Amino acid sequence: MGLVINNLTKSFGKGDIETQVLKGIDMEVGQGELVILKGASGSGKTTLLSIIGGLLSRSGGDVSLNNDDYLDIKQKDLTSMRLKGIGFIFQSSHLIPYMKVIDQLAFVGEQAGLTSKDARQRAEKLLKEIGLGHRLKAYPNVLSGGEKQRVAIMRAWMNAPVMILADEPTASLDAKRATEVMGMIRDNIRVNNSVGLMITHDERLFDYADRIYTLEDGHIAPEKKNEEKEPVYN
Amino acid sequence: MKLALRELKFYKFKYVLVTLILFLLAFLVLFISALAQGLAKENASGVEAWNQEYFVISEGVDDSLTQSNIEEQLDRIEGITDEGHNIEFSANSLTTPESTIDAVFTNTDENIVPQADEGRLPENSDEILLNYKLTDEGYSIGDTVELEDTDVTFEITGFTDDIMYAHTSMAYVTDGGMERLDSTSIAAVALPENMSFISDDINDIQDVKMVSEDDIKQAIPSYQAEQQPLNLMIVFLFIISAIVLSAFFYVITIQKSSQIGILKAIGTKNSELVKAILIQVMLITLTGVVLSVVIMFALNNVIPVSMPFYLNTGLMVIVSGLFLVVAFLGAILSLVRIIKIDPLDAIGGE
Question: What are the TM regions of this chain, as residue ranges (chain B) (predicted)?
Answer without folding.
Answer: 230-252, 273-297, 309-336
